[in-house]
Amino acid sequence: MSKLNNTDRIFLSPPHLGDYEKKFVNEAFSTNWIAPLGPNVDLFEKELSQYVGNKYATATSSGTAAIHLALNLCNVNPGDVVFCSTLTFIASANPILYSGAKPVFIDSDIDTWNMSPVALKKAFKYYASQGIIPKAVIVVNLYGQSADYTPILEVCNEYNVPVIEDAAESLGSTYKGKKSGTFGKYGIFSFNGNKIITTSGGGMLISNDKDGIERAKFLATQAKEPEIHYEHKTIGYNYRLSNVLAGIGRGQLKVLESRIQKRKEIFRRYEKELGEITGFNFMPEANFGRHNRWLTTLIVDPSKVGINSTEIVRKLNEYNIESRPVWKPLHKQPIFTGCLYFTSDNNSVSEYLFKNGICLPSGSNLTYDQQSKVINSIKEIVSKVRS
Ligand SMILES: *Cc1c(COP(=O)(O)O)cnc(C)c1O
């Protein structure tokens, strides 16, 4: 299809650079701090910690690496059980497999699309009856909305199990006045190219546990013992972020607030212009905090719209617009066949959201005209099936 060229294509969530990234990157070049670590890394860790209001952080080569380190800090070993939200990107659970542990998936709540505290409690009860306590619970804040931490932490604290908060998509969001990422024992962020801010690739592990973060830095640097020669006693990883990329991150942090405002604005326009279509229902915003609207997502009721979500995604592609289904639940992924899955009742909310959900182009550099193009294309697709 020749019309699908990159210059006109409207992407889901492309990178959006500001005015300071080059300055920090140039500083790295002019001081020859190209190698991993260096002043940008230290300052990026410090500045991000200040922004979210947590004490300690270690920058990593990816969000996935940060989750793997967090599992390590929670002492997850082969054969252990780790609970994880099912409705998420594979990166939330891949590190469970790296650790040789067994993932167990927890369904979503229809009001937040995030981990259902009721389903979580059922999973805990089931495993406790077998004499098994999971080593950690990975809770995802989906599409920029915080999970409901009060009931989730209540259950986890009852069993004394640490929470790893996967805040890869929710930087800048809040829950009851506190920044997203700060609710678990460990929190992780991602600066992959499609996230609300990017370092082209990178992540961050945050915590108020000083020893844990020091240990994470050690593990992320090949677990090199403090000797003059190269001494190693434990398995280490090469997971640290480069000083060049941390420079991009520092620049991006300066524009984070404006990026969130822009994404929320885009969401409001979609909601205003498309919300009147019967059978379109946007992802709800829970009243417990701020949703950064990383991606605008909605549910399509095919019996009312006359066309299903998959068809809309396919047709938007013909207009050279990238949209996506909502994440395919991890318990439905072939790689996790045989893993247990807990719902709150007989309905599988995550499967319903996957079947009917769409993510619309939501990048903070999406122009007004591009938004109009998305809106008009969807209106046209819907009106054609109705006529
Ligand atoms: C992007 C993402 C990650 C992983 O981040 P990378 O930096 O790409 O490794 C983890 N969890 C969720 C929910 C994500 O969206």
Write the layout of secondary structure elements.
Layout: H1 21-30, H2 39-52, E1 56-60, H3 63-73, E2 81-85, H4 94-98, E3 102-106, H5 117-129, E4 136-140, H6 149-158, E5 163-166, E6 174-175, E7 178-179, E8 186-190, E9 203-207, H7 210-220, H8 243-274, E10 280-282, E11 296-300, H9 302-305, H10 309-318, E12 324-325, E13 341-342, H11 349-356, E14 357-360, H12 368-386
Parallel strand pairs: 2-3, 2-4, 3-13, 4-5, 5-8
Antiparallel strand pairs: 1-9, 6-7, 8-9, 10-11, 11-14, 12-14
Bound molecules: pyridoxal-5'-phosphate.
Pyridoxal-5'-phosphate (PLP) binds at residues 62-64, 88-89, 91-92, 140, 166, 168-169, 190, 192, 203.
**Superfamily at the CATH H level of the largest domain?**
Type I PLP-dependent aspartate aminotransferase-like (Major domain)
Q: Indicate the low-confidence ranges by residue numbers.
A: none
Widest beta sheet: strand line-up: 1-9-8-5-4-2-3-13
Average residue-wise pLDDT: 95
N-to-C series of helices and strands: HHEHEHEHEHEEEEEHHEEHHEEHEH
- In terms of structural class, how would the helical and strand content be classed? alpha/beta
What Rg do the Cα atoms give?
Answer: 21 Å
Q: What's the total number of strands?
A: 14
Share of residues in helices: 25-40%
- Cα(first) to Cα(last) distance is 27 Å
Question: How many domain units?
Answer: 2
CATH top level of the largest domain is: Alpha Beta
For the largest beta-sheet, the strand count, sense and barrel status come to: 8 strands, mixed
Q: How big a fraction of the residues is strand?
A: 5-15%
